[in-house]
Amino acid sequence: MSDLSSLKLFATAPHPCSYLAGEEATTVFIDPAARIDQALYSELSQLGFRRSGGHLYRPHCASCQACISCRIPVQLFRPSRSQKRCIKRNSDLDIALVDNIFTDEHYQLYADYIHARHSDGDMYPPTREQFETFLSPEWGATRYIEYRLKGQLVGVAVCDQLNDGLSAVYTFFDDSQSKRSLGAYAILAQIEKAHALGLKYVYLGYWIRHCRKMAYKTQYRPLEMLVNKRWVRLN
């Protein structure tokens, strides 16, 4: 175990929340100068921290505790009927682990995805620098999973391998393939990957009850949520 008490935390000034209208958000970051490795990253993930680029952060809002960390216990997970259909629909995809996604092909898919799905968000408009900084490999933990249809790149899942699980960092995909539900399939594939590696969890980041964009996370059951510093299982 690492000595977490020695880590310095820095807080942002209050700013408009990206997820809940009318709310102010404050975020705490681990000191960027701290020496992070896979073991420390794993411990911080168990405490509800997430990664964005080379930064580890956690919400720390004065008047709101809506952001709840969640993870899937992969050994207990059983796909629903709709999730089984999603797996079957995508059985013709070729899946591969790759070391690098910073090519023109990958960036174009990312940029098209941001334009199609997130033109109202903080990541719009997309830039090459933003893409490479946000999805950079960190601390020897990052894995890139490609999804191809007859050679054509249709999706990429970025995840980090922790000591006890995979942390789903980001997924982007071809929006014209909407019937495939590639976002859902990427999570299901990461669950299967974690299971094959003998890992216990897939960390999904934060769930917010009144945020429509976060609602999909509760479709994976059982789901564990970090409440009052304890992981609580919802069946």
From TrEMBL:
Subcellular location: Cytoplasm
Pfam families tied to this protein: ATE_C, ATE_N
Origin: domain of life: Bacteria
Ranges annotated as spanning the membrane: none
Annotated signal sequence range: none
GO molecular function terms listed in the Swiss-Prot or TrEMBL record: arginyl-tRNA--protein transferase activity
Principal place of residence: cytoplasm
Domain called N-end aminoacyl transferase N-terminal: residue spans: 15-85
Similarity section: Belongs to the R-transferase family. Bpt subfamily.
Entry protein name: Aspartate/glutamate leucyltransferase
UniProt source species: Gilvimarinus algae
Lineage: Bacteria, Pseudomonadati, Pseudomonadota, Gammaproteobacteria, Cellvibrionales
